[in-house]
Amino acid sequence: MSTIVLLLVTGLGLGALYFLVASGLSLIYGLMDVLNFAHGSFLTIGAFAGYELSRLLGGDSWWTLIASMILGALVGALAATATELLLIRPLYKRLIEQVLVTVGLALASVALFEGIWGTDALFTQGPAFLSGTTEILGARIPNDRFLYIIVAALVLIGLIAFLKFTRYGLIIRAGVENRSMVTALGIDVRKAFTLVFAIGGAAAGLGGVLASHYFGYVSPQLGGTLLIFAFIVTVIGGLGSLAGAAIASVVVAVFQQFANFYLGGTGDLVVVLLLAGVLLVRPSGLLGKKA
Amino acid sequence: MKLIDKAKASSATPWVVGGALVALFAVLPFLNIMIPGVLPGPTYTPGTLQVLALCMLYSSLALSYHVIFSTAGLLSFGHALYFAVGAYGLGIVLQETEFELLPAIGLTIAAAIIIAGLIGAVSLRVTGISFAMVTLAFAQAGSVLVSRNSHITGGEEGLRLSIEHVPSFLIGVMNTRNLYWIALLLLIIVFLIVTWFERSRAGHVVVATRENELRVRVIGIRPFVVKHLAFVIGATLAAVVGMLYLLLQSGAAPRITTPDFTLTILVIVVLGGVGSRWGVVVGAIIYTILDQRLTTLSGSEIIQDLPAILRIPLSEPLFILGTLFILVVIFLPGGLAGVARRATVRSNPLREVEAQPDEVKQ
């Protein structure tokens, strides 16, 4: 029993990280049909920003952690906005080129990070509470998992509130549904494009800071590793669906944890099989509308 | 009629030029040509031949991806998997069994066809971005398998070629020229197979499916079969190239299983020009040489003496290549082949007519 609780909660914690990356990917794809390969780089640069700040301020206080999370989100949002304005917008309506540009950016930015911070992992330091454990139903659960779950839940609530109750949220939801209709009504969707990129980048940057605490280190490859799982999560959840991304994040991560524990570390393979299985039964994903 | 003759003559020109180039490349190991800054040394030295053979290999690999991406219009992110199946498959067969080289090659090709057939059948049930994701996921699974089973694959260290069953003329630095000739031969064969496939009936159906799948269905042809065929052909060719890669590099590194490696192939194809076989070959040669030279350049004193803000980006070859790629995508649609096409169209408007069908509809 205690093992199952432990695996469930750690799975939720990992799922929280997946969600922070996948939510942006899914929104961007849903609105703009752009599969953003550079999303991992937004995460990595956020993680490095958080790392530099915690090195500057001393990593063991809560204030540093909160500040580095805010900084990570800001840096991620800035990087994403710049990407949208400089690289994606000039190629408006040329979908394959847009994807290719993000591929190029992903390759170039990882190389740049390696040039600046080196290829080795840089170890992070957090408040002492995070490295402790709490006992729930007999399971000793690492405290940091609670942080990821709470932050991801707040982001999810914030995103839903934003999409439901603001004017731009309305435009984004309508754009995901039928972009040409929104344009026909005389609304400039391009502002929404930039906004979606900024939001996605912020979530990814925030996810980067959290991921650096989850893994205990930052490296230029951090984003690429998580991005593949985020892609899988996005497709399983249904491209363009925020709720789908949230559900799929948790499902994928929990499956992964259980397979890693009970099936001898085969978590990654099980996730791939899960993706193949879901796509064979429901090609548009769990909650997706478009294929 | 004269116009048509003229058009035919001009369409034969690339083949004549190609034949001449092949002849030139075939005698390179006997020549002493130096191209400072491009090649590491005179063309008869093993080091230079190794680089040139690598160019041929990447050209063949890019052509195999061209079948899937340009001809069939399938955005696969799992092409590295089949290359790795060739390289690691042959390496493992040679290491674990008593087969001689040729039976081992046959066995690996059979394995590649089966794997590509199965994965292709599953992946092709979905289209577009989902297809890209499924192929990416399978390739990632392959990559995980390679790094997990380090007792067979060598894990992070990579797999070393066991040379007991490999003929001696393929081993050793002095025999690099033999591998170079084989690489050149392989490039020619792959080029001919790809051309033949594109001109076959199946190839025409594949192109038609890429342009408008619904119409192909309406005519009464099942697009799945030809798409699957294109996928398996591309994947199997990649596996064959992977096998030669194993022999040339005397081993296989886990890097060739990663999604980044697939992205490299994609970059080469786009750089050369989507839809153009010649462009892809030229793109691969330029990419490989740039990759090699930029790595050397990054260690040179000119770069190391620069201030940090210039030194750091310039000493990362992949940063320069990635940036170059972005610039090509934005400013040179159609890649190098697009540039060449625009240049020839300006000088000879007739070429425009036949240049069109090659272009992938965006």
How much of the sequence lies in strands of chain A comes to: under 5%
| Helix/strand/pairing category of chain B | mainly alpha
Total helices of chain B: the number is: 17
Shape of chain A: globular
Mean pLDDT of chain A: 86
Number of strands of chain A: 4
Order of helices and strands of chain B: HHHHHHEHHHHEHHHHHHH
> Which outline of chain B best applies?
globular
Radius of gyration of chain A (CA) equals: 19 Å
Question: Largest sheet of chain B, order of strands side by side?
Answer: 1-2
Total domains of chain A: 1
Low-confidence stretches of chain B: 352-362
State which percent range the strand residues of chain B make up.
Answer: under 5%
**Main beta sheet of chain B, described?**
2 strands, antiparallel
Q: Quick recap of the structure?
A:
The complex is a heterodimer of chains A (291) and B (362). Chain A has helices spanning 2-32, 39-57, 62-88, 95-117, 128-131, 144-165, 167-177, 179-184, 189-215, 222-237, 242-262, 267-281; strands at 122-123, 133-136, 139-142, 217-218.
Structural notes for this entry:
The complex is a heterodimer of chains A (291) and B (362). Chain A has 291 residues and is mainly α. Chain A has one domain (2-224). Helix content of chain A is 76%, strand content 4%. Chain A has twelve helices and four strands; from the N terminus they run ααααβαββααααβααα. In chain A, helix 7 (167-177) crosses helix 9 and helix 11 (242-262) packs across helix 12 (267-281). Chain B is mainly alpha-helical and 362 residues long. Chain B has helices at 2-27, 46-71, 79-96, 101-123, 128-148, 150-153, 176-199, 201-211, 213-219, 223-249, 259-272, 277-298, 301-304, 308-314, 317-331, 335-347, 351-355, and strands at 159-160, 251-252. A two-stranded antiparallel sheet of chain B has the order 1-2. In chain B, helix 4 packs antiparallel against helix 10. Chain B is globular and about 60 Å long. Chain A binds chain B through residues 29, 33, 35, 37, 87, 90-91, 94-97, 99-101, 103-112, 114-116, 224, 228, 231-232, 234-235, 239, 265, 268-269, 271-272, 275-276, 279-280, 283-285, 291, and chain B through 75, 122, 125-130, 132-134, 136-138, 140-141, 144-145, 148, 259-260, 263-264, 266-267, 270, 312-313, 315-319, 321-323, 325-326, 329-330, 333, 362.
